[in-house]
Amino acid sequence: MSNMLEIKDLHVKVEDKEILKGVNLTIPKGETHAIMGRNGSGKSTLSYVMAGKEGYEITKGEILLDGENILELEPNERAVKGLFLAFQYPIEIPGVATMTFLKAAMNAQRKARGEEELLTPDFMREVKSAAKMLEIDSAMLKRALNVGFSGGEKKRAEILQMALLKPKMCVFDETDSGLDIDALKIVSQGVNALRDANRSMLIITHYQRLLNYIVPDVVHVFSNGKIVKSGDKSLALELEKHGYAQYDEST
Amino acid sequence: MAVKLNQSEQVVLEILQKTGADELAADFAKTGLPTRRNEAYHYSDLKMLLGNVPALATSSKSTSASLVSIEGAYRILIVNGEVQISDEPPAGVVVSTSKGGVVEPENDIIAQLNSALTKETLNIDLQGSPETIIHIDRRYEGEASHINDGVELYILDNSNATIIETFSGSNEAHLSNSASKVILGRKAKATHIMVDLSGEKLRHLQSVQYELNESALLHSLIIHKGSKLARTQLFAKFIGENAHADFAGLILGAKEQHSDISINIEHNVANTTSSENYKSVVLDRAKAIFQGKILVAKDAQKTDAAMKHQGLMLSDDAQILVKPELEIYADDVICGHGATCGQIDEDSLFYLMSRGIEKQQAKSMLIRAFLAELFDEIKIEALKEALISVADEWLEA
Known about the structure:
The complex is a heterodimer.
Chain A: E1 3-14, E2 17-28, E3 32-36, H1 43-51, E4 57-65, E5 68-69, H2 75-80, E6 83-86, E7 93-97, H3 98-112, H4 120-133, H5 138-141, E8 144-145, H6 151-165, E9 169-173, H7 181-193, E10 200-205, H8 210-213, E11 218-223, E12 226-231, H9 234-242
Parallel strand pairs in A: 3-10, 3-11, 6-9, 9-10
Antiparallel strand pairs in A: 1-2, 1-4, 4-5, 7-8, 11-12
Helix pairs in contact in A: 6-7
Chain B: H1 7-19, H2 22-31, H3 46-49, E1 74-79, E2 82-84, E3 93-99, H4 109-117, E4 120-126, E5 134-140, E6 146-155, E7 160-169, E8 175-184, E9 189-196, E10 203-212, E11 217-224, E12 229-238, E13 244-253, E14 258-267, E15 273-282, E16 287-296, E17 304-313, E18 319-328, E19 334-342, H5 346-353, H6 359-376, H7 381-396
Parallel strand pairs in B: 1-5, 4-6, 5-7, 6-8, 7-9, 8-10, 9-11, 10-12, 11-13, 12-14, 13-15, 14-16, 15-17, 16-18, 17-19
Antiparallel strand pairs in B: 1-2, 3-4
Helix pairs in contact in B: 1-2, 5-6, 6-7
């Protein structure tokens, strides 16, 4: 199996309104793809459906992760199989310490793989080294999860989680939103450092900007609930120049 | 006009007559137990809910370990109303007993019954700053019985004390009516925690009185975890200026539990402040009740009080009933109240699960997070740990 992700003719409704109208997408192992589309085109819905959020009715199609259909799985089961969604708006959870959360997530995934729980010193070492790469201040890790984090800190915290959980399929939902240029560079460096032959990535964005730093292998244009065009990275530049209007359906 | 007494009330009346509490018996014969028509008991109609009243307790020994163990605490047992002091108290702690009950009844029949039927009260005077935590381990042991007990704590001027009272014992259909009175002297500081860990057949009624003198500082925390029927009524009086109190509480309700915390806070003098921060978590068919009344007397200018109750409903059949009341006679005060009630936040749950954490564990993390604020206020680590483990055991059950 050389494909990490295959989405086949995916149709999704939210409260009787069809949002995804036949999405087809194949990402081979080790490749990074980008989906670009304007706000409201259904990009975020796609990311939530992949991660298994409730409230979406899948009327047709399937999503294969490493050859296995994941649509019937709980979000945590998808995560332990190696899917990771970096949220556009990471959730603030007062009362849950960031470190407690990180440890719980890492141990949940280890448990699912039949591994022993992490020893605290090993855990601390891993967190420290990942935090250093992302220029995350240790004071931030002492706070409650995402509480009082700036936009940039939240996004870096997402990448930190990704670095610790080592997923094989990473989905970034508008990771560039709310980032200034310095934060964007740090986040991109973090992502690039995690690119390897066994890890695939899907970057969802509506600006080309992020793709200057994380250069995709393939760019897809998303419009009105499906992918309408695919091409190489030059497609992103072309979109930036001419906008999405030419891809809007005339129907 | 006298009411018709039911069987439980008849038993209570006979107990009062036998005890020689004639005046109270005469009153009780007229009124019986409080019903929903009594505002303070509107959601906890004891005539309906109390059930069988067992015989008065006889003395009993308890050899079992405490359900809550706090490292280094000085522990005093009260078993079926009988004070059992075995260890020498630490410096600054004077322990004695006195005959009879302790609470001033506030025209409340449950407190009056406790006062009339309690044989022996544990008195503790705390002076200086004893570092030792005082653990009053109140037990209801042996066969189902009717138990009345009382504790009076006096934190002397400029003193500082930490006291935890736990309620537990044999899992029988006891009826316990307990009372605590806590007096804080001038500039006295106290943390006073009460945790009901009784078995699930128990009926637990409790009256707590606080008196705060000038510049006193109180942190009160009530936790209801055990008992089929639990009701704590709290009466606090600010009688000295510049005193401050944080009143907090938690109801953990499951199965068919009926759990009620009703507080009455009186700001009687100027320049006193309080916060009231209560939470309820209910599942199955449990019912949690919080009634919060704050009275600000005419001369109690510059009072600042902020009351809130937050509820977390974990099943469709559970109930949370909340009634805040402000009665304000002064004109220069800040007084507010708020109540929220909700379920586990779906977005937070999804977020945690999306990182691989199983649903049940993710839920537990979110419930712990909901409770964290109450425990974070406890500054003594050993005590905080003990209370968190009480909540954790509940979550895991």
